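Fold these two proteins, one after the other.
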Amino acid sequence: MLEDSQGALKDLDKVYVLEPNNAFILQNRGNIKRMLEDSQGALKDLEKVNVLEPNNAFTFKLHGHVKRILKDYQRALKDLDKVDVFELNNAFTLKWRGDVKSTLKDYERALEDLDKADAFEPNNAFTLQSHGNVKRMLEDYQGTLEDLHKADVLKPNNVFTLGSRGDVKKMLEDSQGALNDLNKVDVLEPNNAFTLQNHGHVKKMLEDSQGALNDLNKVDVLEPNNAFTLQNHGHVKKMLDDCQGALEDMDKANVLEPNNAFIFKWHGHVKKILKDLDKADVFEPNNVFTLVLHAYTNWSLNNYQIALETMEKVHVLEPNNHLILQTQNWLKWMLIEYQFIIKSL
């Protein structure tokens, strides 16, 4: 098919030299360029057709579709609205217009177009994908799954379908189902930031903290300074007791999205562990739980001297606690080892 399109384009180029103002030739050449993913070339041809032959429904249809590909959504919508005037209830127009409205976050009106498209042309994989995506935005997760299951039957191994379905299964807490879909996407399209982000999130839900960290590290390389990645990165590091690393990620996320509730929650949580234990000690001095948490937090940050001093206070309060004595001895050994390493550097 690709070879046929290339051959057709060569033929149309020859005719275009002879007839540069032939609307039919330009329309077909623009359509073939669209199929060959030369969106800018397609747009130029279709704009010429629009001057030579205004109010042509097929041209507006193609024009709108190409503008959508080029992410010029508002102008795409204008073209597709014009098509609807000349050619009411065209499934091709309705599915693309529904998709554009969805991108512009006009979800209710997008759903109307996609419902009509599905009625006039049932079992279209693209319509079902878009339909499912809009339902996902409207938080109808079961409806989303139904659409994406149908799309997967019609067009199996589609990255968009599997990625969206994995994302919805994650929201419905079907972690294993989500992981299965995302694993397939990762094979079909490796190094996709969105997939790895969700992959990492699902692994975190399954308490595979190290696997989650590996995925999120890759995302951070592909798409640095993403608040969602950083907040999950920080959360996973906290699960792995890397409090300092968690705080660094949360600090970055907090700069990028200062009013994000999830970031604020975990940022505060980590900061509380690292800094607010001192405040707790002021309000309720000599609380064994506070002091032990203080000691272990400093231990995780390699602050062995502070951890040891804090644990010695606990030992005074609970002199017969075998675990406290054991921890003290372990910290003393760690401190000696740490000082030896520092001197060796």
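Now the second one:
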Amino acid sequence: MGCFEYSRIDGAAANNLAPPVPEEMKKERYHRFMRCQQAISRERMRERIGERMRVLINEVREKHAFGRSHADAPEIDGKVMVRGGAGLRPGEFAEVIIDGARDYNVRGHVVNAATRCRQDSFLDTGRAKRPIRSC
């Protein structure tokens, strides 16, 4: 879960409500909420240690690969860091055993070689066409 400090948006019904709380109070509430959420997330990530998961690789750097599980939305949820995943490629799946956790991310090591995917066609989402991959 995430939150944000309220700010006026043109046309929003909330603009007609009582004056917003002072900026200092917004910041204090935001930070208090996020500290609480961070602790919850940290515990949930730790519960994943020992889990075997299928990870879609999004990015590969010198030593590690980074991806996401079926439950993680790109650019929103945490990442899975795959140690020893330098030989993987974006678009591949890898079986990973989770052996560590941070506040919002988990890390693990490859168990099985990646399944190579191919791009078959495009999905028209109404905004942009996205590739559909099959394995």
